[in-house]
Amino acid sequence: MNVLKKLTTAAATVSLVAVTLASPAIAKNFKIAVGDSGGSSQEATGLGFKSALEELSGGKHTATLFLNGQLGSEQDTVNDAAIGTLDMSLLAINNVTPFSPSVGVFTLPYVILSLEDAETLTQGPIGQELTENTINDAGVRIIAWTYTGFRRLTNSKKPVKSVADLQGLVIRVPKNEIMIDTYKSWGISPTPMAWSETFAGLQTKVVDGQDNPYTTINAMKFYEVQKYVTNIRYIFSIEPLIISESVFQDLSSADQEIILEAGKAATAASAQFLRDKEAEIKQILLDQGMQIDDPENNEQEFIDLATAAVWPKFYESIGGVEKLNAVLAAIGRDPVSE
Ligand code: MLT
Predict the structure, then answer these.
(1) Architecture of domain 27-148+238-276
(2) How far away, in angstroms, is 261 Cα from ligand 1 center?
(3) pTM of the model
(4) Given 31, 67, 172, 262, which is the most exposed site by the fewest CB atoms within 10 A?
């Protein structure tokens, strides 16, 4: 090859590399870390996203779900997405809060009281503001919301119907200050533990119990290691699909639009999954031998202790009492005063 031809070939190679790097219009298989296993609401969101993505991109893009924490603990996946070594993650909002404290407003006990509240908040201006906050604080963008239902308390030792019954139990919580303080308001000091270690922790009896929604208890087969369920409703679990902001910014604007549209379809798929499946899944837990109890007195003691101790403590981290009041107003509830 003569020198001119060599230079031309080299230049072509360089420009091809440059185009490839600068032009994410190429087909992409998005890698999605999923904290929960198959059959979970997270999987329903992930599959909803994948099929909408494939359809909207005319088959150009696809996604692969890595279930059951295969790609690391939920909190670790936020770091991985932030630095762009992971494309996407599906995880509980409480595992995003340590990186973007204002989303803690969705984890404050007894704020979200129904699926409809969760949809109103996440799909309206408040959800949009929190999405912008996570981009700035954590380098990840929320593109879809999973609605998983109320986090129910489970344990292997005894029925729990009152705050008094809870005493003496060792309860696992995520590494989330709001949840830790909520249990403290109920008189016990919980054990923070990564989600990926929780089944083993329950199985080996390092901890007696934990809380998560029916759909998660079922998908994770917690009925194999837990007997008693208490229908507390302190947190309605919201589990976003996040994308690395650097991965998102590398996409063409047309592809960004496709991702956002696929996210909306995934959110709708998640709400449908919960509406269709929650009652059926509760029955599966009963069939598996779990005992499900309601807390006494409509949970009033749990509610009073948690809201009095925990809400004021976190006003500052969620952006002020006015942020909580905006959330309460959006779902038709009375404001609180500082
Ligand atoms: C947790 O308890 O850490 C999470 O709720 C787990 C999940 O993503 O389902």
Answers:
(1) 3-Layer(aba) Sandwich (3.40)
(2) 25
(3) 0.90
(4) 31
